[in-house]
Design a protein that fits this description.
single chain; alpha+beta; C8orf32 fold; binds zinc ion
Length: 291
């Protein structure tokens, strides 16, 4: 049995890239855990479950719209990269009551609560908690910690995060309803899901991004390239057993991407990791050492 320390010399890969593969393996493995899925499903209102799963007659012909709307508008919260200081907001609320009516300018100034700054980012030692972001308010020195969990039930409990937490949990919700799903990562700064949907021409993986508003959140694969000026090199879709290079699904500029890949040494690392993920058991070794 190989130990934790042997992994770097064995694979000769930078930790962050391999860790990302490992994270998505561990996250999607949870999509096959009946107990996790039972708990996640219990969080979805019954009306949403019924509208998602019983409005259709064809297998895999799901209606994801109610679930997407509920998840974004009623369930999850977004954790900003520049959070407002809660202590200052509360104090400001009190002050603004006192000075109400005195001067509009002062009320406006009092309502502008300080934005917190990143104090420190502590890298975690496991996929279960990838890192801890520590923020501090420059005004009152209040600190706020945002743990980046990989465990679905931790995310379901905190109900907050950024695109990674949203896509990890949303994928679990899809799985809990029997909808085949995977997580897609663009190796720039965003991730989302895909769901297996039936169309007259057959079943296929469809883009689903719970962080976006409908209709952009469903089957708009070119959204990021067209509106966020994404310049991809690799977009990969992960299940517990396989990783697939889905870059061509998300681009109308495949030639440019191929040119970019040729210029970077990273292509070797990507193709080796993809091969290992799909064909070898290195991630099983990593699993034991990462807990
Ligand atoms: Zn403050």
């Amino acid at each position: 049995m190989l130990g934790c320390s042997s992994s770097s010399s064995l694979f000769g890969l930078s930790y962050p890239l391999k860790d990302t593969f490992l994270l998505y393996k561990k996250v999607t493995e949870q999509y096959e855990n009946p107990e996790i899925l039972r708990i996640v499903r219990s969080l979805i209102p019954q009306g949403i479950v019924l509208r998602t799963t019983t409005t259709t007659t064809t297998k895999h012909n799901w209606n994801l719209v109610p679930l997407l709307r509920w998840f974004k508008n009623d369930f999850m919260e977004w954790t900003p990269k520049d959070p407002v200081c809660e202590m200052c907001v509360n104090r400001t609320d009190g002050q603004s009551k006192v000075i109400e009516g005195c001067s509009n300018n002062r009320s406006v100034a009092a309502a502008a609560a300080p934005i917190m700054q990143v104090k420190k980012i502590i890298i975690g030692n496991s996929w279960k908690m990838r890192k801890l972001e520590l923020f501090i308010c420059n005004s009152c020195k209040h600190e706020y910690a945002f743990p980046r969990y990989g465990e679905i039930l931790k995310i379901a409990k905190t109900k907050t995060g950024r695109c990674s937490e949203w896509s990890m949990l949303f994928g679990a919700m899809l799985s809990s309803l029997g909808i085949k799903t995977r997580i897609v990562h663009d190796f720039l700064d965003h991730c989302w899901n895909e769901a297996m949907i039936s169309y007259p021409e057959g079943e296929q993986w469809v883009h689903v991004d719970s962080t976006l508003d409908y209709p952009i959140s469903l089957n708009h694969p070119y959204h990021y390239e067209e509106n966020w000026a994404k310049e991809y090199e690799y977009v990969l879709a992960f299940t517990a057993d396989t990783v697939e290079d889905v870059t061509q699904t998300y681009t109308l500029k495949w030639d440019s991407i191929q040119q970019r890949r040729l210029k970077k040494k990273k292509a070797t690392d990507f193709s080796r990791l993809i091969h290992q993920y799909n064909n070898e058991d290195i991630f099983i070794v990593s699993r034991a050492s990462s807990v």
